Amino acid sequence: SLASLSASMGLQLILVVLQNRKKGLLRILKECLIVLIGAKAPTDAYRVAMGAEHEKDTMVGPMMEMTFNKCAELFAESIPGIIIQLSAIVSTINSG
Q1: I want to staple 61 with a disulfide (CB 3.0 to 4.6 A). Which of 54, 73, 88, 96 is the partner?
Q2: Nearby residues of 11 by Cβ (< 8 Å), 6 or more positions away
Q3: Are 46 and 40 a contacting pair, CB within 8 Å?
């Protein structure tokens, strides 16, 4: 749903700001744009696959950043989706 997608993007934006807060406003805006267009997961995967190193003035390295973002997606998108599906199954069983 729109709420879970918004929550996921919100969590990812918070993580991006925390990760890049010492890198400057331009870097934060660039990374936020990547989140807003929905390209954060492929960007993180590319950085990990290419062996990007932990940059100075960032909180964590690329692998940990990808892990944090995947956890945010799981928490904000997958779990609410499962709850919606389970409620539909239960209501179908209860209605006959």
Answers
A1: 54
A2: 72, 75, 76
A3: no
